[in-house]
Amino acid sequence: MKLLIDDANIDNIKYLYEYFPVSGVTTNPSILFKNKKDPLETLVEIREFIGDDQLHIQVLSDNADDIVKEARLLKEKFGTNTFIKIPTNKEGLKAMRLLENEKIKITATAIYSPTQAFLASLAGAVYVAPYVNRIDNLGYDGVETTIKIQNILEKNQTDTKVLAASFKNTNQVLKLAEYGISIATCSYEVFGKFIEDNNVNKAVEDFVNDFKAIDKDRRTWTDYLG
Ligand code: G3P
Prior knowledge:
Structural class: alpha/beta
Number of helices: 12
Radius of gyration: 21 Å
Distance between the termini: 38 Å
Bound molecules: SN-glycerol-3-phosphate
CATH class of the largest domain: Alpha Beta
Order of helices and strands: EHEHHEHEHEHEHHEHEHHH
């Protein structure tokens, strides 16, 4: 499973790239709104910073013809490793099919059900993005729904992969890693929880203190060897 950053704040993205093994960035209109900056400038800045890594950008139109136009323009502006996020409703599915023969990579988004994912895979989406936590909030099981989607895609021998989104805790992510889900995109807050563990901090502190007791002037191997 690869990890992407579900955030448009460039400082958050730079921080997460520094500390975590991440492979790109996903955005949506709400995330760009939350960032409170010019959305186009923000996306350009993100693309410059992440180089050729995956960047997922959502279209804003609500009818198929205009979605197609946006998709072409976004691909031209942001390059080949840009995934055009298209909501998986009727107009979105129509747009996916219209784009099927163009070299435009599609992430079918706003997926709440296996049926949507199945249809998007038939319409040529590279990724389908189930909203794990939002499905949980509807009283269903987001992790189970995502695994079901993965099984349907595998059984139907499609090339479409799962990009799971909308997480509120690390356990949701880890359960999906166990099933080999291709990608999980996580918010800055969820990344913070991945290694927030007092047991780990205490263990590291104990190692440092024990070694200090050997020789107070030589605390690291650099002091011995450097
Ligand atoms: O990428 C989709 C995702 O951003 C939705 O997440 O946290 O708004 O449910 P959330």
